[in-house]
Amino acid sequence: MAPRQMTLSEIPARGLRALAKELGPTGMIRFLQQFETRGTRLLLKKVAA
Questions:
Q1: For residue 4, with 0-12 CB atoms within 10 Å meaning exposed, 13-18 middle and 19 or more buried, which class applies?
Q2: Could you report the per-residue pLDDT of 15-30, keeping only the tens digit for each?
Q3: Where do the domains of the chain lie?
Q4: Which residues contact residue 13 at a Cβ distance below 8 angstroms, ignoring those fewer than 6 apart?
Q5: Angle 12-13-17 from CA coordinates, rounded to 5°
Q6: C-alpha torsion sign, points 42, 48, 14, 17
Q7: Using 50, 70 and 90 to split pLDDT, how confident is the model at 45?
Q8: Taking the model in full, what pTM does it have?
Q9: How far is it between the farthest Cα atoms of the chain?
């Protein structure tokens, strides 16, 4: 069974939810800090809203 197509906006949102589920909120933030850019900070604000 092939995975369903996701929009470009769904991919990061679902990825962040998966990170939070697997690592917990603190682990997710610590992981993302390794790759911190302006875009990541904006994305986190969108997901948290």
A1: exposed
A2: 999 999 999 999 999 8
A3: 25-49
A4: 46, 47
A5: 110
A6: positive
A7: confident
A8: 0.58
A9: 36
